[in-house]
Amino acid sequence: MGTFAPPQLVVGAIRKDLPFGLFSVLEALTPSEPYWQAGGSRWEFLRTTAEALGAPDETGEPSSGVPKKFEPESGDPVWDDIADAIPFSVYGHFRTSPIAWSQERAENRAIEHLLHREESQVERQLWNGTYDNSPYLDDSPTSLGSGTVRVALALLEEFLADTYGSLGVIHMSRKHASILLCETSLETKGSFLQTKLGTPVVAGSGYGNATIIGSPALFGFRSEVFTSSQAGSPLLDTRNNDLYAIAERTYLIGYDPTGVGSVTIS
Predict the structure, then answer these.
(1) Is the peptide bond preceding residue 67 cis, with omega within 30 degrees of 0?
(2) Would you say residue 55 has pLDDT above 90?
């Protein structure tokens, strides 16, 4: 029998990010100051709808609707409505032998792991709020009942128009997005996925399958990537002779608390 050489290390398939995920609608800024990473952030938002009253009569005085209504009815001015958001972190990791790998090379693999998988993990945290981040989508949303994916889309379009009154976001699994695309209820526009009415849609690989959710528009911050060696010293397990590397990033995602709607898919 002939002698065979050991397997040679080659470059595998190049990974490409999934289209139409959360990052297609979320423009996460990276502020120069990390003020938001410790205590989170807060912002002012408008909660109320506009009101109407009758046309003025011949004296110039309104014929009805006096006095004008101001909300909130508690007497607090509208501009005092404040919302809060609490951040969370995602990380990529790599474990190897300290004999065969340098710390820098191991950290590069951890960074690669983070960059290719962070979007799905950020979607998961936005959906479930697993690590006490807030707000999150599945936090007691307003139930709009149940229906097919097409019915869910229509109910959420109406809900967002009534409660938010601006262009929101509809969140669904990639399975449900695929069904709606086949039914031509959704359309693609460059790197964006949207409804026929122009509402942005996230087809999230980290989202749940049981419901489709509608939310106000999103905003967010994210930190630069930082590694285990930047945080202190290399992570070396001398008992098992293992070298660990971690690449981490902190996120904060917020939206106005005017209401999140949910439809159970039947």
Answers:
(1) yes
(2) no
